[in-house]
């Protein structure tokens, strides 16, 4: 009898609780569907405003920080001489030679100045908007990469002031010549002229290329081609920052290192199926326990 009672009361024989059926979706055209769509639009608007405020705040902090170290003339020029000497020791191409070669063509110099002044920021903003609308999981990843890389760059700008090549003997400030320099007029008053290292023009261009490749590398042939062609953007940006004498080769190298650090800190989106990019950029290892 005891065994019978134990068997009867065991969990294996207890009746299972009924599982409630999932709520059916609202019928098309019904009041419930209109309410759900209205709530979704409001949530999207709130998300957009929050992201806009976040990105704007980060940008303002960066702009304010760049203006902190504006009176480091002697140190900035001493650091510039050291960078030029180091580049010579590394047998890197002489930026002044590259610049003077391009200056033989007014059209090329004008195009380089316009690219430096008017492409860098708009293309990054357009890229972020595209990710936010179409690829939200990748947007968060890219936004965090940009935030970390830019934050570290700001610290370097403050601690290591560096005069750009355009301020050094043997170089020409091409932007000042045709009036397209972002560092003249009002820009000269609010911008830190000694924030050459790292080159965020190049660093942000790299992030754009990596983000487009992450989204498109395993799609249809047209978008796969686009994921390769986008690498012309950082390549052209690197050439432009040198030709306009706004950055050194090493400025781009340091920006690449900062991006690598940010990619270790910020993991790749978990649900991404893009095996090609994962092979190129390995996911950070989980810490051992």
UniProtKB/TrEMBL annotation:
User: How is this protein situated with respect to the membrane?
Assistant: Multi-pass membrane protein
Q: Which UniProt keywords apply?
A: Membrane, Transmembrane, Transmembrane helix
Record localization: Membrane
| Region (Disordered), start-end ranges | 1-32
Is the keyword Membrane assigned to this protein? yes
Highest taxon above the source species = Bacteria
InterPro entries per the UniProt record, alphabetical: Aur1/Ipt1, IPC_Synthase-Related
Show where the Inositolphosphotransferase Aur1/Ipt1 domain sits. 82-264
- Chief subcellular location equals membrane
Residue ranges spanning the membrane: these are 48-65, 115-133, 145-163, 199-217, 229-246, 252-269
- What name does this protein carry? Phosphatase PAP2 family protein
Q: What is the lineage of its organism?
A: Bacteria, Bacillati, Actinomycetota, Actinomycetes, Kitasatosporales
């Amino acid at each position: 009898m005891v065994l019978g009672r134990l068997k009867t009361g065991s969990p294996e024989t207890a009746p299972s609780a009924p599982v409630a059926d999932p709520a059916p979706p609202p019928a098309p055209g019904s009041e419930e569907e209109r309410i759900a769509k209205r709530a979704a639009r409001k949530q999207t608007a709130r998300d957009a405003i929050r992201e806009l405020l976040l990105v704007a705040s980060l940008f303002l902090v960066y702009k304010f920080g760049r203006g902190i170290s504006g009176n480091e003339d002697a140190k900035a020029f001493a650091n510039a001489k050291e960078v030029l000497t180091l580049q010579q020791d590394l047998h890197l191409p002489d930026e002044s030679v590259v610049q003077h070669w391009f200056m033989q063509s007014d059209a090329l110099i004008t195009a380089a100045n316009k690219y430096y002044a008017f492409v860098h920021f708009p293309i990054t903003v357009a890229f972020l908007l595209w990710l936010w609308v179409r690829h939200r999981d990748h947007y968060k990843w890219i936004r965090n990469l940009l935030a970390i890389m830019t934050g570290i760059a700001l610290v370097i700008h403050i601690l290591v002031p560096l005069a750009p090549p355009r301020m050094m003997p043997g170089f020409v400030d091409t932007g000042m010549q045709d009036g397209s320099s972002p560092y003249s007029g009002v820009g000269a008053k609010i911008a830190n002229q000694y924030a050459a290292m790292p080159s965020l023009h190049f660093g942000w261009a790299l992030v754009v290329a990596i983000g487009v490749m992450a989204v498109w590398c395993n799609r249809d042939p047209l978008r796969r081609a686009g994921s390769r062609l986008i690498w012309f953007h950082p390549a052209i940006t690197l050439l432009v920052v040198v030709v306009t004498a706004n950055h050194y080769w090493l400025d781009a190298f340091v920006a690449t290192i900062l991006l690598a650090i940010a990619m270790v800190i910020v993991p790749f989106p978990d649900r991404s199926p893009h095996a090609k990019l994962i092979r190129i950029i390995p996911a950070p290892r989980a810490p051992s326990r």
